[in-house]
Amino acid sequence: MSAPALPPGGGILYDISRLIARHANRTPTGIDRVDLRYALCAAGGEWGPAMPVAQRGGAIVEVPRSVARRLLAHLAERWIEGGPGTEIEPVLQQAGLLGPASEGAALAAAAAGPRQFAMRYPRCIYLNASHHGLSEQEALGRLLHHVGGGGVFFIHDLIPIEFPEYVAPGDKAVHEERMRTALSLGSALIVNSAATQRSVEAWAAANGFRCPPIHVARIGIEKGFEAEAPAAPPPIDRPYFVCVGTIEPRKNHITLLHLWRAMAQELPAEQVPKLVLIGRRGWECQHVLAMLDRCEALRPHVIELSGLSDAQMRAWLQNARAVLFPTFTEGWGIPVVEALALRVPVICSDIPVLREASQGLADPVDPLDARSWRERILTYAAESAEARAARRAALARFTPPAWDTHLTGVRDALHDAMRGAGTVPPLAGRKLAELPAGSVAIAEDPDPELDDFSQAVAAGDAARGRKDWIAAARAYRQALHQQPGEAGIWVQYGHMLKEAGNLKAAHEAYNQALSLMPRDADLHLQLGHLFKLANQAAQALAHYEMALALDHTNAEARRHVEWGQRQLASA
Predict the structure, then answer these.
(1) Do 189 and 293 lie in a common domain?
(2) Could you say which of 386, 419, 452 is where a domain stops?
(3) Are 143 and 94 in contact (CB under 8 A)?
(4) C-alpha span between 130 and 111 (Å, rounded)
(5) Which of 46, 313, 324, 522 lies deepest, with the highest CB count within 10 Å?
(6) Can you say where the TPR repeats lie in this chain (predicted)?
């Protein structure tokens, strides 16, 4: 079944802040892989019109498309194809995306692009797949005030909240702020597993939040990790096991290292398989690093690798007796999925998310049951070639998650968020600071004396000429009872309400006109004036910018854009 077409008026503001921050990294994390895939989809137009954005100086700013394309090409070559990448840092520096952020009017001008994009595409959404910057709720809130479809956020896990002992001090509070942002501003959430969905729902319920729709989209495997991938020669000629993941406390490398030290002390050297650790050294794991660096018994039996390309990783996985994954907690479990996709046996922790990721085909062990881990490892190491082949053949039942399927799920989430957006430009549908309501009472029932459209318009014009704003508003409202599709009369009705002091009702009238002629520069100018009267500079600036974008010759719009930028710069 094909994915539904995205609604008209949809657009994507895709946040590439994390990709910019990690441009120099040789290998990607799981979050990096998702972030890059989404960015490539957005840049390729697969989700409709898109603008790359980044977080700079407390604002969301436009990233020039040429710069974004070069960054994504660099990361795709480096992270997906295993190449060296390109010289990207000078490009990012020249674009003002590295180093100190712009300030004042320059920053305000850089932030204009996303607001204009959001007004051009009334069902626009802001998409963030990386957690990056979600703790900055104020900056995101200012942008999402203009975004008709709201925010769509990928939640990878709640590990810093549920297991604060495995992360750096302060990470729990930061992640709680991310969750508050996602639940407060999100029109849809994407998660990588049903286990993560349960965690999000439980945290939301415990903290008084109502969850937006949650879409489970399991992360796909990269090209080359399919069962049909060409077999690589064994990297070493000894039985070995692989453990993939950053060396950090929750990955539980310490259990494996203690097991290997015991085996090295108790068994003949030729009976001790090799342990291959693939992953960079992380944080708060000095006890693990001490064993790796100073334990003489481990040195002949443990190989430590990092920075491998996908092809190198595949070669180590394909020839392993099994992949070991003794982690205490995960959001998904990419190493488990990649190994099983290659039909490599997996011995992993018996936790719900890995039962889900492995489709029940891994060999589960309690992460603290060292005796069982040792028994499994020695059994797998001593198996005959026939037993190993039979074990691998049984893994043919594993169905690897595909990126195409994942991205179809993402498209569904975007579709739902866009479909739920208002059909008028975003400022009409978003929650605004309170506008003065005044005391104007407008009759909603038709006036028998003004039962003709032309007669009602003439009465309104006459009342406007004598500056009787209330009478003019009532007459124009009667005309709209006759012909509600007359955009010009909605504008005149809004003018009269504004002159009478009822800015709230004027805003509603102008937005009715905007739904009929969304690309009218003068109407955006009038809305800018309305918000200027209400001392709401950010909202006024958004409309002034849109007026100027629609009519570059509009000197009044240009003058007011400069006013708005000065206001925000001095705020």
Answers:
(1) no
(2) 419
(3) no
(4) 21
(5) 324
(6) 487-520, 521-554
DSSP bridge pairs for 303: 276
User: Do residues 259 and 285 both lie within one domain?
Assistant: yes
At a CB cut-off of 8 Å and minimum separation 6, what does 484 contact? none
CA 239 to chain CA centroid, Å, is 41
Question: What residue spans of 9-88 are helical by DSSP H?
Answer: 17-21, 30-43, 65-75
Q: Which residue type occupies 525?
A: L
Please measure the distance between the N-terminal and C-terminal CA atoms of the chain and give it in whole angstroms: 51
What CATH number has the domain bearing residue 314? 3.40.50.2000
Distance between CA atoms of residues 8 and 518, nearest Å: 13
Distance (Å, whole) CA 147 – CA 151: 8
Of the candidates 245, 217, 218, 238, the residue with the CA atom closest to the CA atom of residue 348 = 245
Say if residue 186 is in the same domain as residue 42: yes
Q: Are residues 206 and 264 in the same domain?
A: no
Within 10 Å of residue 550's Cβ, how many Cβ atoms? 20
Exposure pattern of 380-411 as b/e (b: 16+ CB <10 Å)?
Answer: bbebeeeeeeebeeebeebebbebeebbebbb
pTM of the model: 0.75
Query: pLDDT by residue (tens digit) across 252-301?
Result: 999 999 999 999 999 999 999 999 999 999 888 899 999 999 999 999 99
Q: Token digits for 247?
A: 């060396």
Whole domain around residue 194: which residue ranges? 12-220+404-419
Are the beta carbons of 183 and 212 closer than 8 angstroms?
yes
Cα(463)–Cα(442) distance, integer angstroms: 14
Q: For residue 520, how many C-alpha atoms fall within 13 Å in the half-sphere facing its CB?
A: 17
Give the list of residues 6+ apart from residue 108 with CB closer than 8 angstroms, or none.
59, 541, 564, 565, 568, 569
> Do 379 and 443 fall into the same domain?
no
Dump pLDDT digits (tens) for 450-474.
Answer: 678 888 899 999 999 999 999 899 8
Q: Are residues 129 and 250 in the same domain?
A: no
Cα separation of 404 and 409, whole Å? Answer: 9
Residue 269: Cβ-neighbour burial (10 angstroms; 0-12, 13-18, 19+): exposed
Q: What is the DSSP letter of 396?
A: G
Is 409 found in the same domain as 277? no
Q: Indicate if 469 and 542 belong to the same structural domain.
A: yes
Strands (E), 267-331: 274-278, 302-305, 322-325
Number of domain units in the chain: 3
Residue 113 resides in a domain: yes
CB-based contact 253:243 (threshold 8 Å): yes
**Nearest in space to 152 (alpha carbons), one of 338, 411, 335:** 411
Can you tell me the distance from the alpha carbon of 480 to that of 484, in angstroms, rounded to the nearest whole number? 4
Distance separating alpha carbons of residues 9 and 14, to the nearest angstrom: 16
